[in-house]
Design brief:
Keywords: Membrane, Transmembrane, Transmembrane helix
Structural class: mainly alpha
Helix content: 55-70%
Oligomer: single chain
Number of helices: 4
Shape: flat
Radius of gyration: 22 Å
Largest sheet: none
Number of strands: 0
Amino acid sequence: MTIYLWHMPVLLTLAGVTALVGMGAAVPLPEPASLEWWLTRPLWLLCTLTATALLSFRLARLEISSPPRGTGPGLGAVTAGRAAAGVIVGASAVVLLLVAGTSPATAAIAVGCWLLALRLATRPIGASRPGPVLVGADGRGR
């Protein structure tokens, strides 16, 4: 699942880096579908595979970790309203990029929206994780 989730961000990042290098170094990029373009595909795929594998190894632990204890109601749980707001903010970033196009400004706004969406979909701002419960000899919490 990690590879599935992260291969497209890796591809888009590599495409952006390639475009920046091509523009900044005044190196012409090969015409898509030309012989020169096809000859660069094995290197492109190797770079993509390597970057995706490295990222997946680092992020795979997030998929196997269990949710933190004490995330019930009143203990820092995310409400349905916050989750819905996170989805709307995140989806609006995608719509912005589709409608207005990708530019440095729209990309920065989209990243900001995605970060806000992640914040909304996690613990509420200011909520602290519950501390350890101390249990006395009688078995009751203190």
